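Researcher: We plan to redesign the surface later, but first we want a full-length starting point. Tokens attached.
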């Protein structure tokens, strides 16, 4: 008997991005007949995400870095904001008593304020995913 294949964080993010894109198109088209692609992508990438799209290991490592008052080794502003939000939720949940990083597992599954992607990255994920689906259909 085959075990079901678990989805990677990357695959889950791709699915959520495409789903949010189509929901945003529908929502904006209902409000206004003429809507630009840029408006769609701007609205979609700033909408809430169903979870934080990062692995537990990476989240634990970077939240630990912040707990130890060290600088994050990343430069992407969106990712920095995501890790700050994870850190804020972690500290709130732990009430200042750090060291128990298992709570991060549940925090990662909570809805995130955004996808932490810029509109260009969001657009790229949508286009690549849709073209992959077209190729699979052939």
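Model: Full-length starting sequence:
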């Amino acid at each position: 008997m085959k075990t079901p294949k678990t989805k990677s964080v990357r695959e889950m993010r791709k699915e959520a991005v495409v789903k949010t894109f189509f929901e945003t198109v529908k929502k904006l088209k209902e409000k206004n007949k003429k809507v630009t692609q840029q408006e769609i992508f701007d609205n979609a990438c700033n909408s809430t995400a169903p979870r934080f799209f990062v692995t537990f290991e990476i989240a634990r490592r970077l939240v630990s870095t912040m707990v130890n008052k060290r600088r994050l080794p990343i430069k992407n502003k969106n990712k920095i904001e995501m890790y700050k939000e994870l850190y804020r939720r972690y500290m709130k949940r732990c009430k200042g008593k750090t060291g128990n990083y298992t709570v991060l597992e549940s925090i990662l599954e909570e809805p995130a304020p955004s996808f932490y992607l810029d509109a260009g990255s969001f657009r790229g994920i949508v286009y690549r995913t849709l073209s992959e689906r077209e190729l699979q259909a052939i």
